Amino acid sequence: MSVTATKETILLLGNYRPTLTLARVLSKQGFRIISGLEGCDGGAEYSRYVDQIWDHEPVKTNPEGFLKSLPAFVRENNVAVIFPVSEESVRFFAERSDLDYGNAVIATVQADLIKRCLDKMFMMKLAQAHNIPTAAFAYADDQSQLQKKSQAIGFPLVIRPQDSNQRIDGKKALFIQDIQDLNRQLPKWPALQKGLVLKKKAKGKRHNIYFAAQKGKLYRYLHAVILRTDMADGSGLAVEGMTIRPEAQLQRFTATLVKNLDYSGIGCAQYLVDDDTGDISFLEINPRIAGNHAVPEFAGLKLSSILVDMAKNKALDTRPVQGRTGIRYVWTYGDLLSAKSAWLRREIGSVATIAKFLRAARKGFRADLHMSYVWHDPGPGIMSLLSLAPNWRRLFVRLTNSERGTVRAQARPPH
User: Fold this and answer.
1) Residues of the chain with CATH 3.30.470.20
2) Which of 105, 174, 262, 273 can pair with 216 through a Cys bridge, CB separation 3.0 to 4.6 Å?
3) Is the pLDDT reported for residue 2 higher than 70?
């Protein structure tokens, strides 16, 4: 059952790419859309489907300030549904699930499910217990354990904060090549970190499984593979991908995890798959709208309405749906920004940068779907591209004084 066409108001929190898709879908279903302004890549303020923007206190850095202003805003704007989009806002409401938000309901999966999915050690142990392959992992809560367990797992490895909302020197993860690299990047225990999750770095392309489930049973399903990201090592955000026929093993693994979590709602399971060896490594389940939410929506899964219907206690249509295959999608802004940033850091020269720009343009023209741009709502996509316009003075200095074919040696990509 779809959301009833009314003029009820939905507040979207987190101004990111999926916010645009949600606004476009839910607005067409008759909702009035308000979007929070906090976020780095959404462009909701330029969308014709967003009726109002709320410039609130940041959820991540000032949650108490946000909480103080939220009830009055909900009441004054007659908000019927609060829809957390960003991980910070999803976590915010999961940690405050007992609070009263007036007449507004929260469009999210259950708080205990969110907490389990965001607990990386719990999820990897769950996968391991059900014979779902995942790379070797460990937990460290001091510098001595970090050294010992890193060497026990073996290099290269990935180190992340136990709390996914935290950062290590501003980074979501550190990629460690060997013990010398560990000592260089983490010579002492990072401040504010209660624990670190260590995981052997696996090879392969990232595979995203978009799904909806009810009481532990899948009923909507789409398999997509990420072909390129905005990082040279394959980490980072997807800039090109394709939907494919469901692969039996990954479908079975996802069904097992969903069953054992007694999962209700929408989510995105992620795996790494090595094309050469076929080796699989489970990564995580994101219990929220995915960054590339436009993909399952375009493919026919209609995930946008499910959390709204659940929050409003509406009956769900749980007939099995498999998303369309063969859809090529791109995030042109992310592709161009990655090339520009690498050039500014002198990791690549001008010729390579131009080649990357031309490739992004070619892929964009051939794509079936763009993450930000749609013809009937061009503002966000156009404004994101305009933000890439160069600082002409800096460009002139770079080209005249310091280019000359020089590229910084052994440049490390940002994380």
Assistant:
1) 205-330
2) 262
3) no
Dihedral Cα 247, 248, 251, 253, nearest 10 deg: -120
Q: Give the list of residues 6+ apart from residue 406 with CB closer than 8 angstroms, or none.
A: 346, 349
Question: Which CATH number fits the domain 136-200, given the four candidates 3.40.50.300, 3.30.1490.20, 3.40.50.720, 3.80.30.20?
Answer: 3.30.1490.20
Residue 355 has pLDDT above 80, yes or no: yes
Stretch 87-100: mean pLDDT, rounded?
92
222: left (phi > 0), else alpha (psi -120 to 50), else beta? beta
Nearest to 372 by CA among 15, 12, 3, 10: 15
The DSSP element (H or E) to which 208 belongs, if any, is strand 205-214
Q: Name the residue among 267, 244, 268 with its Cα closest to residue 327.
A: 244
Architecture of domain 9-108: 3-Layer(aba) Sandwich (3.40)
Domain 205-330 has CATH 3.30.470.20: yes
Round to whole Å and give the CA distance between 300 and 321. Answer: 8
Q: What pTM value is reported for the model?
A: 0.90
Q: CA 413 to CA 415: how far, in whole Å?
A: 7
Phi/psi at 82 (nearest 5 deg)?
-100, 120
Instruction: Tell me the pLDDT tens digit for each residue of 289-335.
Output: 999 999 999 999 999 999 999 999 999 999 999 999 999 999 999 99
Cite the beta strand spans of 16-104 per DSSP E. Answer: 32-36, 52-54, 79-84
